[in-house]
Amino acid sequence: MAIEKKDVEEVAQALQVKFDEFKKTNDSRLDAITQEKAALAGQVETLNGKLSELENLKSDLEAELISVKRPGGPQQQSKAATEHKTAFMQFMRKGDDDGLRDLERKALQIGTDEDGGYAVPEELDRNILNLLKDEVVMRQEATVITIGGSDYKKLVNVGGTASGWVGETDQRPATEASKLKLIEPFMGEIYGNPQATQKMLDDVFFNAENWINSELAIEFSEQEEVAFTTGNGTKKPKGFLAYTSSIEADKTRAFGTLQHILSGSAAAVTADSIIQLVYTLRKSNRNGAKFMMNNNSLFKIRILKDSEGNYLWRPGLELNQPSTLVGYGVAENEQMPDIAADAKAIAFGNFKRGYTIVDRIGTRVLRDPYTNKPYVGFYTTKRTGGMLTDSQAIKLLQIGAVA
């Protein structure tokens, strides 16, 4: 059944009804006498869960509506790309690599190593990355670039330009110039090894391309989300939470160190700390900024109110309007820590400015029909990395009482 705009509107109306019911029940819980709190707390949890379900359903319907309306069909491919794809599928099904060997002898592809594997066709490589973007929240929020060689370095202006006031005839001594720092991503090789029987590969109705797309997206996505969020940078990307942080403000904090503030409670988040987190970020970075937290944290954030009794979280009720927290979107990243003492459970910032994901072109596949008979393995590798590019663009909320 085709998705229509009215389907999204119906879900949005249901979301509004549940939000009103949630507010009423939660307000009653807060006002209730001690004996009644447990029962009302259970109702609040149930309604909180319904809000999550409806919010996710609305997002899914909007995404499907966009895909239905997307114009155009498949892109025209060059003769060389078509030949590569045909030869690659023959290699997957039968292990016949004659066509691939001939093609790759002719091709001068930057970043393609002679390691016994074969480069995935460009279209298939792009489809894998598109699927990963759908699955990996950090790929949706951060800047993603693709490089051809093995090295990538970025010059970052960390400021420092000085100036001063002078009179008409005063001398004008030299002033400090801006300082530049060279940063580079922490790279690693991610691999997957999906398996299929030879009978599956021989079956004319089996779409080998779609199968390897989906299998690799599943295998790569969880590993990438962990790496881009909390990875330690050893043989893998360094996640933004792995960088050091301090309570120092932007003007005095060292480049490459994030700023965190305390939540105001030893084991919880306060409404004041959420608002403070927003205004700790410079105005220029707040344009395009989002909160990032896991679903458990979002559950707890929904009950917070400001000093005037207004809920900080608001459901998005219009088409393509996301739910917001104090006016900013929320990206749900399940690799963010739960709310607990000393955890940096919530981030807020412009992640496109703050974090960069670097993909190296040339996904490689090695066909293995021997190791796990009767299955044929497709040992697949890809180089990817990540780095913090602007330590002023992302702020963290650490759970702890303010001294």
Explain briefly what this protein structure is.
With 403 residues, the chain is α+β, with helices and mostly antiparallel strands. Helix content is 40%, strand content 20%. The protein has two domains: 62 residues; 227 residues, 2-Layer Sandwich (Major capsid protein gp5 fold).
Write up what this structure looks like.
The protein is α+β, with helices and mostly antiparallel strands and 403 residues long. The chain folds into 2 domains: 5-66; 120-158 and 178-294 and 333-403, Major capsid protein gp5 (Major capsid protein gp5 fold, 2-Layer Sandwich). The protein has 12 helices and 17 strands. The chain has helices spanning 5-31, 34-69, 79-94, 98-106, 122-135, 137-141, 198-202, 208-230, 271-280, 283-286, 295-301, 351-354; strands spanning 118-119, 143-147, 154-157, 180-183, 186-192, 195-197, 245-246, 258-262, 290-293, 313-314, 324-325, 328-332, 344-349, 355-360, 364-368, 375-388, 394-398. An 8-stranded mixed β-sheet has the order 7-8-17-13-9-12-11-10. Strands 1, 2, 5, 6, 14, 15 and 16 form a 7-stranded mixed β-sheet that branches. Strands 3-4 form a two-stranded antiparallel sheet. Strand 15 and strand 16 form a beta hairpin. Helix 1 (5-31) runs antiparallel to helix 2 (34-69), helix 3 (79-94) packs antiparallel against helix 4 and helix 5 (122-135) crosses helix 8 (208-230). The protein is globular, with a radius of gyration of 26 Å. Mean pLDDT is 81; it is low at 70-75 and 106-115.
